[in-house]
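Researcher: We're teaching a course module on how sequence relates to structure. For the next exercise, students receive a sequence and then see the predicted structure as tokens, so they can try to spot secondary structure elements on their own. Here is the exercise chain.
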Amino acid sequence: MNLVPADASRWRRLENVLAALAIVVAAWVAFSPAIHGDWLWDDNTEIVRNLDLRGPSALWTIWVEPSSPDYFPVKSTVQWLQWQLWHDQSTVGYHLSNLGLHMLGALLLWWVLRKLGVRYAWLGGLFFAVHPAVVESVVWIAELKNVLSLPPLLLAFSAYLDYDERGSLVDYIIAVLWFVIAMLCKSSVVMFPCFLLLHAWWKRGRISLRDAKASSSFFSVSLALGLVTLWFQNHRAIDTWAISLGGPFDRMVSTGRALVFYSLKAVWPCGLMPVYPSWLTGNLAFWLVAIWCGQAGLVTWMWIRRATWGRHALLPFGWFVGNLFPVLGFTGMSFLAIAPVADHFMYLSLVGFAGFVAAGVEFIERRLPIGWSRYPAVLVLLVCGVLVWQCRSYAAVFVDQETLWTYNLIKNPQSWLAHNNLGVVLQKQGKWQESVTHFEAAVAINPAYDPARVNLGNSYAHLERGADAVTQYQEALRLASDSFEAHFNFANTLVQQQRLPEAVVHYEAALTISPRAADAHYNLANALVELGRLPEAASQYADVVRYDPDAFEAHLNLGNLLAATGRLPEAMNHFDAAVRLAPQSGEAHFAYADALAQDGRFPEAVMHYTEALAWSPNAPGLHTNFAHALMRLGRTTEALNQYEEALRLDPNDQDASNGLRLASQNR
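Model: And here is the predicted structure for the students to work with:
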């Protein structure tokens, strides 16, 4: 078919549109079963209970005073925006964000591979978009940092390629800025400067002084923000986790195994699961020799063949291994206390593998007879179809916590984390005895995992096994004396046992660890009220509404305490907040009305008494106080009706009896 240039251009544009649609549609089909999926794993910590996402000072907190275990402020800023849009009412917006970013990453990969001269660049984007190992990163809301970091990283590389071709300072600055943004999304992109040097060698056969100078800014960014990440990991994330990486010899074995694991999952993505079994090093000498000799042999083979295909293979291989390097186990990471490997660790690395597949299709095609040349591309396209089906099946596992952790225990029965998380699900369903079975299993597998002991204590407490609950809390505090959950739940159990002074001690300890925990402030305030320490209780309620302005009961209780001490203007501010938050609460309207009446604002008081009666018509004291307010407004007949109703509900209401007598005299 002969096309004039204009027709050829239109045809190419149509091809590009169809290719982009294919990537988007394939990704949608692959991941759509999880679009309505529930909050999972640490989503509650990242989003639902994350106070850094709320309030007018949230952005300042995110960038300047973060309380999170990592410093990823761009990621947190996006989460802040998501919270403003959707709060915790629905997960659909969060899931669509992750999926949209993943689609964007796949399309940008296609774009970058085209710039590198890969003929089947589109196929690389499609392969990456539907590889089952990316499911965890796409459908797990908290892994926003993965899908968010890839687009700016690829944009940084694209701008750097432009700079490398044109020498434009603007392109260079854009590349550095995109890389900074990627690092502030997730610091696992830290190895990017090394890849730039590898690209220079791939393109020119050597690394020049110009290449070294050009990469220096990227290395500076990597070093600075990488050190920040290490500080956060060691001071915020893993300080209470028992992570044993072993000596250099053990680390080399574990690292080699992890690299083999990720390579095999890239090629054959079967048996995927959220938490993989921990492996035993076994015969260290054998594994060290076998693994590293095999990998060294592969790299040596590619190096020997660098004049032909080896050079092109080393570029995607370098991306694959380089982006895995920070998570292979050389340095401590909080997740390594759970499992030695994870699917979401290989998200960025799969970009290199997808590039390898796309380039490999062209390499094989050129070596086949003309009649067979299209078969490699068709074969990869068929493989992508199979991957879509596998992705869709695996994504359905992430629809809710129970499905996810039940699946994980089928695949890995020794996962103490899966036992613990499934136990939490069962607690929420009211299946307390079943939850005990899983918590006890978690503790048996990993006796040092203090959250499972806290959860086990909670189940024991609910089953009225108070002594057993106390034992578990005490053991949890022995393992982690700075565990907020242990102190907080221990205090709750002590309250149930009426051991209030001891409970106060543990609430205060919990708040020392997490000063902004509104629920701990609230429970402490309630305990202080029971002990008659009302000024201290008022202070705690004030902290509750400071950290959680939507805490209805705290506003109501604080208003009652302030009104009892004559601080009516302050009390009414909190009553106003309470009725705004819970307009159907008769108790809140009643308390507000009483305060307004005390302040002489009887018309407003009558309005709230009327509203209170609509929701609490059988409260005799409410009818009595309503009648008093009506009397002050001269509405005697209405007051008589309210006094009579109060006495009907409670014939012993002396206040209503006296009021009725006076109203009758004034009639």
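Model: If you want an answer key for the exercise: The two ends are 104 Å apart (CA to CA). The chain has 32 helices and no strands.
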